[in-house]
Amino acid sequence: MMIRLAPLLLTLLATIAQAFDQGETINIPMTEQGLLWNKQIQLEATLYKPAGEGPFPLVIFNHGSTGPRVIPDTLTIKPWGFGAYLNKHNIALLIPMRRGRGASQGSYNESYNCSVNSVESGINYASQSLDATMQYLQQQTWLDQEKIVISGHSRGGLLSVVYAAKHPQKFKGVVNFSGGWMGGQCQIKTPIASNQGLFSKAANNNPLPHLFMYGRNDPYYSDSEIESYAQAFKEAGGQIDFQFYYLGSSANGHALFYEHSDFWIEGFKQYMQQLDLM
C-alpha cells in the first residue's frame, strides 16, 4: 500500500532539503601579527543570504569551544535551520569559524586553563578573528551596516556580549545562547575573570539591548550560576531580557540552541521585532 504524505509535510520536507543545501562558503582575510612578523591567513565562514541584492540585516553567530575534544577542531558549524528561518524573514546569517576551527587557518589557542591570564588571553585571541570578520563585512554592499545583531552559543555567546560591549556602535543587539567561557567547576579567584565578572564588566555603560537564553540542567553551569550571570549583568546597568527554560528532566540545557529551538524561537522573534528587524 502506498502511503501519501500530507501536503504540509511534503512542503516541510522540501523546505528542510532546500535549507540544508543553502549556505555559501566564503574566505575572510586576516593578518596575524607577531613581534617580528606578519602573516596572511584565511578564515572560513558560512553565509546564508536571502535572494536579491539587499541590503539585508545580518545576524552573526559565534560558535562555542571544542569541549575540549568533544567537538572536532575540523568541524564547520552550519546551523542551516537557523539560516533558513532568518532568510525567510529577509535576514542574512554569517557563521565565522575562528582560527584553528573548521577550515580556518591559524592555531586554535583558546585555552581551557582556569587561570585569569588564560581566560583573558583566550577572549582576546578569539576577538581577533571577530575583528577580521567585521573588517570584511565593512566592504559588503549586500549588508545593511546599521542592522547587525551579534549572537553566539556557549563561548561564542559570552564572546558576543564582551565584543559588542567594546564596539557597541557596530551592532543593533546581542543574543547570548548558553554563554560562558569556563564551566562552573573552574574556580577563578579573580571575580572579574569569572563568567559572572565578565558579564558584569560588559554591562558597564553598554547601551545595547541583550537577549540571554539558557536551559536548565546545563552540565557546565548550575542553575544558580546562570541566574547570577543575568543578575550581575542587570545590576551593572545592562539592558537584558533573560529567558530561562526547563527543557525536561533528561534534557541537556547546554543544547538549547541546537536541539530545542521550539522553546526559544518565539522569544527570539519578539526580540528581533523589538529591534525592528522582523
Structure write-up:
The protein has 278 residues and is an alpha/beta fold. It has one domain (28-274): Rossmann fold, CATH 3.40.50.1820. It is built from 8 helices and 8 strands; from the N terminus they run H-E-E-E-H-E-H-E-H-E-H-E-H-E-H-H. The protein has helices at 7-21, 80-88, 116-137, 155-166, 195-203, 223-235, 256-259, 261-274, and strands at 24-33, 38-48, 56-62, 92-96, 143-153, 173-177, 209-215, 239-245. It has an 8-stranded mixed β-sheet, with helices on both faces. Helix 5 links the parallel strand 6 (173-177) and strand 7 (209-215). Helix 4 (155-166) packs parallel to helix 5 (195-203). The longest helix has 22 residues, at 116-137. It is globular. One of its GO terms (molecular function) is carboxylic ester hydrolase activity. Residues 57-177 form the AB hydrolase-1 domain.
Output the keywords.
single chain, 278 residues, alpha/beta, Rossmann fold, eight-stranded mixed sheet, 8 helices, globular, disordered N terminus, AB_hydrolase_fold, AB hydrolase-1 domain-containing protein, signal
